[in-house]
Design goal:
The protein is α/β, with parallel strands linked by helices. The chain is built from ten helices and 13 strands. The chain folds into two domains: 140 residues, Rossmann fold; 140 residues, Response regulator (Rossmann fold, 3-Layer(aba) Sandwich). Helix 3 packs across helix 4.
């Protein structure tokens, strides 16, 4: 960006390793030693929630480009995220399932804060709109054999299975489901947007439908194509949804500073004013809680590729 107010932007990197204790230690250093006005992060919701009280107490902006826990909504006035809450995604998939007449479902989610949050939101909205839940199960992160739970699901024969977790695990679970003869439609969320889903699931994951923010690395829009080109050149891989949100988080801070000052209170006030900011991850607007209001879309796996889902 060439700096702001004749000053260069200095970026200081710290790594929480997705561990709350390390995140708190890193945040303390950034706030008390480096004297930052803004922290971009964290990725894991558990870390963002752990460092949010520090940011709030010290009146430091904390903006997460990846944390989706509903608890972040009430974390404080200085806490923002430009990545959608699980509440939005869970509602979106539940409403989609009912719309497509998948009115009888089983739920299979990872047993952590991410999975529990989406499980709760999906079930609540699905039932509210007339859906019936036949089973609701969770699994531990890292397991490789899902057959016990899947045999239970097979016996119930739901029209759809709402599955939540991480790419490799979901791919493996769906592959085992198909091997057992489960023919239900699998629905998921943005974490399925990961090549590991396809690598571990193979042909079995063809037809899986999942929600995602609107970032499209193949877009011809100038700002997106330039971002993809520069990112790919720098890191040797194509940017994903989370990379796009990380990039936009910095641009949002720059926009707020341009319109105010480098004081965190001024930055906070400007962030709340942002409406339809044209980032690479889509248009961004913040609500009164610092949560993002953002469009989403559905994708489907077809012949081992992620493509936009089209209504029949």
């Amino acid at each position: 960006q060439g700096g702001l107010f004749n000053k260069k932007i200095k970026i200081i990197f710290e790594d929480s390793k997705a561990e709350p204790k390390l995140g708190v230690s890193a945040a303390n250093k950034l706030i008390n030693v480096d004297k930052v006005q803004v922290i971009i992060g964290a990725v894991a919701s558990s870390v963002t929630l752990a460092i949010a009280p520090l940011a709030e107490k010290n009146e430091i902006i904390l903006i997460s480009p990846a944390s989706s826990s509903p608890k972040i909504t009430d974390a404080g006035d200085f806490i923002f995220r430009n990545y959608p809450s699980d509440v939005l995604e869970g509602e979106l998939v539940a409403n989609f399932a009912i719309k497509k007449n998948y009115e009888i479902a089983s739920i299979l989610t990872i047993n952590n804060e991410y999975g529990i949050g989406l499980n709760r939101v999906f079930e609540e909205n699905y039932k509210k709109n007339g859906g019936k839940i036949l089973s609701n199960d969770s699994y531990s992160e890292g397991i490789k054999d899902y057959r016990t739970i899947l045999l239970k699901i097979k016996s119930l024969n739901p029209k759809c299975v709402f599955i939540v977790g991480y790419g490799r695990e979901m791919g493996t679970a769906i592959k085992q489901a198909r091997e057992l003869g489960i023919k239900s439609q699998f629905l998921s969320t943005v974490n399925f947007y990961d090549k590991e889903s396809i690598n571990s699931g193979g042909d079995a994951v063809n037809g899986v439908i999942f929600s995602s923010p609107v970032f499209d690395p193949n877009s011809q829009k100038e700002n997106i194509s330039l971002f993809v080109k520069q990112f790919s050149s720098e890191f040797g891989i194509e940017p994903d949804v989370w990379s796009a949100h990380g990039y936009d988080a910095l641009l949002l801070i720059v926009e707020a500073i341009k319109n105010s000052s480098i004081n965190s209170i001024d930055i906070k006030n400007e962030l709340y004013k942002i409406k339809d900011f044209p980032g690479v991850s889509g248009k961004t607007t913040f609500d009164s809680n610092g949560d993002v209001i953002k469009d989403a879309r559905f994708l489907v796996v077809q012949n081992g590729e992620f493509i936009p889902y089209k209504e029949n």
